[in-house]
Design a protein that fits this description.
- InterPro entries: MFS, MFS_dom, MFS_trans_sf, Tet-R_TetA/multi-R_MdtG-like.
- It comes from Alectoria fallacina.
- It holds the Pfam family MFS_1.
- This protein is mainly α and about 575 residues long.
- About 65% of the residues lie in helices and about 0% in strands.
- It has 20 helices and no strands.
- Helix 10 packs antiparallel against helix 11.
- It is globular.
Length: about 575
């Protein structure tokens, strides 16, 4: 019998069922694939790569759970994106804010949310590994809804900043949703499932601004007649999140396998209050009492079955009170070392994901400044034209994800797709400063001039950047899911990834704006300063992707015929040396 498949075996959750020869209970949302079931009988290379010679079948997608996760993501993205359209106007109407300070304080409010997420995203991921995914999602949704209500009642700048900080502290659902998605799918169907997540984010980027833009009037300001002019979009966002909370509470199934054997969430909350009551009122709570030992009880030599059953019932009753505390959290039977969790591939994935998020959010900030700025550093686009171009980018994102990404990933694999999209991101930065101008007299080194050429070139660059962004995000989610030693640490890894994402979103706009302002004093092509710097950063991320070589990072059914055997054998040797 060949050596067990490390790539597939590492993905299995480490529950107590695996210590027995009998198969574990089947998950409601995660049917095992053929390769996973036969991994112990196949050779290492056969199981790891899912070659064409294997008779694997794609597991059916858990449609119901995917739909619930889609509702969670869409509701949250709609709520969070609803703030953007009215935030500058809201900040401008705060007392003490001068017109020249609006941009600064808008950035401060937005950065406070990202910095707060940076502080707690890892914690929410870690907590979901301890108590389960569903309690964390419910908690985050409820607290985020409360923060939206509070944000609608803000009357001063510092109130808005404090509420945004609180909203960032309690909002860690994005990483947990990605974790759930990785747990309810396997390597045979994960590509199809992860393809739709950026689509949901794109839809949220459309529905959110609609909510925020339609429910706030152009002349909204604080007055006695209308003391809270920004309450309507926030109340609607909170209502959307409450509906999301109810749907999640009823229909979302716990995806952490170790937490499935725990009592229902409501009973666990009731047990918690019971333990607190016992601790406060009893001199020695029941969960601290010394357990009774069965073999010290009198033996019934006559074999009276009734007495034996009574003894067992008493023992069960005692043990129930003594083990009620562990029922609050799942048991993890395998302790993983730091090096097993944060191996070479995982560390490189985290570093490149930080670079990707930093580059992605910086490009968004640079494009807004670059578009509206006057020539020669800008292209003098109107707000309507900028909005049209961004809508085009969002539509292109959805079309690419639904129509082309799956086929592209099947051709290239997860690693090469991630690498190619990082390269495309760097290329988008390099090309953007060379987009032409509306008027030929403003030309300053552009490739061409005139409105037609401007929109052709701008459309190409935005399409390239959008494809790169969604490709990087989807590929990363697949890679980080497959890199996890088992599902018990997947929440921690996704939490760390979202922490790094928040760090990039917090510092990116600040440095992007500063570099562009610096570039206005440079002639010619001063706009190339900021785009060139971040293009170089993205290129460094592209170079780092060459170090991500683990063959177990690919999805099932992908055939890697050339250039992989050496890497796989090298990885196998490293795992054997580590095991010794």
């Amino acid at each position: 019998m060949g050596r067990p498949n490390n790539g597939t075996a590492r993905r299995k959750s480490t529950t107590h069922y695996q210590t027995f020869p009998t198969p574990p209970p089947k998950s409601k949302g995660q049917p095992p694939s053929d390769t996973s079931r036969n991994s112990s009988h196949d050779g290492p290379h056969h199981a790891r790569t899912g070659s064409k010679g294997s008779n694997h079948e794609e597991s059916p997608l858990p449609i119901r759970q995917l739909f619930v996760l889609a509702i969670i993501s869409l509701s949250e993205q709609t709520a969070l994106n609803s703030i953007g359209p009215y935030l500058p106007q809201m900040v401008a109407t705060f007392e003490g804010v001068r017109p020249g300070q609006v941009g600064l304080y808008v950035g401060l409010v937005a950065s406070s949310f990202a910095l707060a997420q940076f502080a707690t995203n890892f914690f929410w991921g870690w907590l979901s590994d301890r108590i389960g995914r569903k309690p964390v999602v419910l908690t985050g949704t409820l607290l985020t809804a409360a923060c939206f209500v509070a944000f609608g009642f803000c009357e001063t700048l510092w109130q808005a900043i404090i509420v945004q900080v609180l909203m960032g502290l309690v909002n860690g659902n994005q990483g947990v949703v990605s974790t759930c998605l990785g747990e309810i799918t396997d390597r045979s169907n994960q590509s199809r499932a992860f393809t739709y997540l950026p689509v949901i984010y794109g839809l949220g980027g459309i529905t959110g601004p609609v909510v925020g833009g339609l429910l706030v009037s152009k002349n909204a300001h604080f007055s006695k007649k209308d003391p809270y002019p920004y309450i309507k979009p926030n109340l609607l966002s909170a209502a959307v999140l409450i509906v999301d909370l109810i749907i999640t509470m009823i229909f979302l199934e716990e995806s952490l396998e170790e937490a499935r054997d725990l009592p229902p969430l409501g009973k666990r909350v009731g047990n918690l209050f019971s333990w607190v009551w016992q601790f406060a009122s009893s001199s020695r709570p029941s969960y601290l009492r010394i357990p009774s030992i069965n073999h010290k009880r009198p033996l019934h030599i006559d074999g009276d079955a009734t007495n034996e059953e009574e003894d067992e019932e008493d023992s069960d009753s005692d043990s129930a009170s003594q083990t009620s505390i562990p029922e609050m959290i799942p048991h993890h039977t395998t302790d993983l070392t730091h090096s097993q969790i944060f191996n070479r591939d995982t560390l490189l994935l985290m570093c490149t994901y930080l670079i990707f998020q930093l580059s992605n959010v910086s490009y968004g900030s640079l494009y807004l400044i670059f578009g509206q700025a006057a020539p020669p550093t800008g292209r003098s686009l109107s707000p309507k034209e900028i909005g049209f171009s961004l809508a085009f980018a969002s539509a292109a994102t959805i079309v690419f994800q639904l129509g082309f990404f799956g086929r592209l990933r099947e051709k290239l694999g997860n690693r090469l797709t991630y690498k190619s999209c990082m390269a495309a991101m760097a290329l988008a930065f390099i090309l953007t400063p060379w987009v032409g101008y509306k008027d030929s007299k403003n030309g300053d080194g552009g490739i061409s001039s005139g409105k037609v050429w401007l929109w052709i070139e701008l459309g190409f660059v935005l399409l390239l950047k959008s494809v790169a962004a969604v490709g990087c995000l989807t590929s990363f989610l697949l890679l980080i899911t497959n890199s996890a030693p088992n599902h018990s640490v997947l929440g921690t890894l996704n939490g760390l990834a979202q922490t790094l994402s928040a760090a990039g979103r917090a510092v990116g706009p600040f440095f992007a704006g500063g570099l562009f302002s610096l570039g206005t004093h440079v002639e010619p092509k001063g706009e190339a300063v900021a785009f060139g710097v971040f293009g170089g950063v993205a290129f460094v991320g592209f170079l780092m992707t060459f170090g991500i070589r683990g063959a177990n990072l690919e999805s099932e059914g992908w055939d890697e015929e050339e250039g992989s055997e050496g890497d796989e054998e090298e990885d196998d040797d490293e795992e054997e040396d580590h095991a010794r």
